[in-house]
Amino acid sequence: MTTLGNILNTARSAITTYQAAIQVVSNNIANASTEGYSRQRPVISAKPSLELSFASFGTGVEMDGVVRHRDALLDGQFRRENAATSHFELREQLLGRVEAVLAEPTDAGISNALDRFFAAYSDLANGPTSGSARGVLRERADALATRFRTIENEIQRISTSLGRELDGVVDQVNDLTEQLADLNRQIVASEADGNQAPGLRDARDRLLDQLSVHAQVQVIERPGGDLGVFVGGVPVVDGSVARTLEVRTVSGALEVGIVGSSTAISGVGGQLGARLDVINTEIPTMIGRLDALAGEVVARVNQIHRAGTNPLGQTAIDFFDPAGTTAATISLSADVTSDADAIAAGSGDGLGAYQAGANDTALAISALRGEQNATLGLTFGAYHSMTATDLGLKVASARENAAAHEALVTRADTHRQSVSGVLTEEEVVSLIEFQQAYTAATRLVSVADEMMQSVLRLV
């Protein structure tokens, strides 16, 4: 049967339970502005009843544990959009660096150097015997070649820098996956008794948010409380085991893979994916277009120039070094470098001798400015303009995509904060509720004490 001791035990269970509940609510209020903190909720239930032959009596209340408010689906949506935002933001930044090197349309760009080169040849056509015109032409041709080499070199420097950055980012990713594996171990151990470890789970989710900046991650939670984390379908964290990533070069391209496995991770996403895409695709494409332009300029100018005869009486002389057919190697021929008079302005006479007034070679080369190149399919200027325009469009597209995904990130974060975020007003209501329950429990102790005193007075 029930006794005063039972009543006191019931009151004590309520006092300790609501003390703990008030502590949980207090912690929520204290962390209302803490980034990555998930609102916690005390799980309170009735203790087993006291079953007697004539009745069943309650024995109080107990706290079964503390759980946090979190929605894995909303977390996944946030991380997907976060990875996409990071990817496009970095892509815009990196392509913007390449665009700045091209320097179009400014006086420092290749387009201006091409125009000045062909204009100098036009001036030579107007004064085929002018030594100063030849000197200016040589200077402008050298400036054009230098501009090609400088731009190609700067783009290669960007690529090399990105490669070094990629190594550093992979090291950061490996550090994050090691921490995730360690937290998996701690969570499994802490939750072995069936109770959640909200603080450890919050720490793990913060790491996953950080990881989503670097790569597109997929997360699978297992019944024991640990996680499997995948990048491009490849597990990088499997419970308490983290698999180490590495950067390697295969067939001239960089890739990210698991140490000990020859398979590359595809569809990395995030900032890692942006770097790989720019290094392996965008920069080689840009250099390829510069090489094609430089090669055609060398080939067509030399083809026409070799047919002319210079003031030194020489014919079949190359204007540009025929071995330098790329943006990195284009340069003037040794003949032109050593003597501006090696430059031909016109054809020789019937015997191949120099004709002072001939200017057909200079006219033909200056006309290349408006000629559609058979290999490029456009004029030299239009081809390079398209190169710069295409790059500008890619930068703009990355900027637009970054803005669009940023809006989705904000919305996804708002949605998950509505579930896991702390609303101070709600916590105050819960605090008042638990305080009143605590006060009532203490009053119950007073009632039991008064009843005990009454019994003692009867003795």
Overall outline? rod-shaped
User: How much of the sequence is in beta strands?
Assistant: 5-15%
Radius of gyration, in angstroms, nearest whole number: 38 Å
Alpha carbon gap, first and last residue: 21 Å
List keywords for this structure.
single chain, 459 residues, alpha+beta, 2 domains, four-stranded antiparallel β-sheet, two-stranded antiparallel sheet, 10 helices, 10 strands, 10% strand, rod-shaped
Please describe what this structure looks like.
This protein is α+β, with helices and mostly antiparallel strands. It folds into 2 domains: 4-69 and 421-458, no CATH class; 76-407, no CATH class. It is 60% helix and 10% strand. The protein has a 4-stranded antiparallel β-sheet with strand order 5-6-7-8. A two-stranded antiparallel ribbon has the order 1-4. The model has no long low-confidence stretch (mean pLDDT 90).
Question: Secondary structure elements and their pairing?
Answer:
Layout: H1 4-30, E1 40-46, E2 50-51, E3 56-57, E4 61-68, H2 72-102, H3 110-126, H4 131-190, H5 198-214, E5 217-221, E6 227-231, E7 234-238, E8 241-242, E9 245-250, E10 253-258, H6 270-305, H7 334-338, H8 360-366, H9 380-420, H10 424-458
Antiparallel strand pairs: 1-4, 2-3, 5-6, 6-7, 7-8, 9-10
Question: What's this, in brief?
Answer:
This protein is of the alpha+beta class and 459 residues long. Helix content is 60%, strand content 10%.
